[in-house]
Amino acid sequence: MNYSFRKATTSEIPAIWDILQQAIARRKRDGSEQWQDGYPNPEVVKKDVDAGHGFVLIEGENIIGYTAVLINDEPEYAKIIGEWLSNYDFVVFHRVAISENHLGKGLSKKILEFIEEFALSNNIYSVKADTNFDNIAMLKIFEKSGYKYCGKVYFRGGERRAFEKVLTKVN
User: Fold this and answer.
1) Which of 4, 16, 37, 137 has its CA 20 to 30 A from that of 65?
2) Which residue intervals define the domain N-acetyltransferase in the entry (predicted)?
3) Would residue 37 count as lying in a domain?
């Protein structure tokens, strides 16, 4: 399949929210506490898109995945209980979600590959992210994608596991 990854547009917010709602329900079915507190919500998605941080994974003409991608913008990461692998500029991503009817195709890993390309295209060699301790699917994706566990961070009162991948320059 041919996939593309680009900034989301305002008109795509309803499709993005549908995908996130599927992911929220999936987290609940998996027994995870992540995303069970009213976050994320449509306002969060609108803020992502309006700020230019919302990105979509596209197959043909269809939106099949979503994430928010930011540069050097996660204040909680300065309070890590542990230690990052690097202390230079970084890309951070949040809210990775894949459409229900596209699961099992390795698309979350594909989104991470696109995020790494985005980082390199901006001369940034670190990607940082976090997930809930009970989001087994995302923990496995981090492991398969070469992310290293660095410690714990806290969001909205909840403990999260923090990961980083240091990228190498491609000549």
Assistant:
1) 37
2) 3-170
3) yes
Q: How far apart are CA 167 and CA 145, in angstroms?
A: 11
Q: Is residue 171 part of a domain?
A: no
Contact (Cβ atoms closer than 8 angstroms) between residue 89 and residue 77: no
Q: Domain holding 75: CATH number?
A: 3.40.630.30
Please name the amino acid found at residue 162. A
How many CA atoms, within 13 angstroms, populate the side-chain half-sphere of residue 72?
7
CA distance to 37, 38, 88, 109, 132, per residue, from 127 (Å): 26, 26, 10, 14, 17
According to DSSP, residue 37 is labeled S
Closest listed residue to residue 17, CA positions, set 63, 51, 53, 74: 63
Per-residue pLDDT tens digits for 71-81: 999 999 999 99
Which range marks the domain in which residue 93 is found? 3-166
Tell me, what amino acid is at 138? Answer: M
Q: What is the pLDDT of residue 170?
A: 60
Beta bridge partners of 35: none
pTM above threshold 0.85: yes
Pairing of strands 148-155, 81-82: antiparallel
Distance CA 15, CA 27 (A): 19
Residues facing 155 on adjacent strands: 158
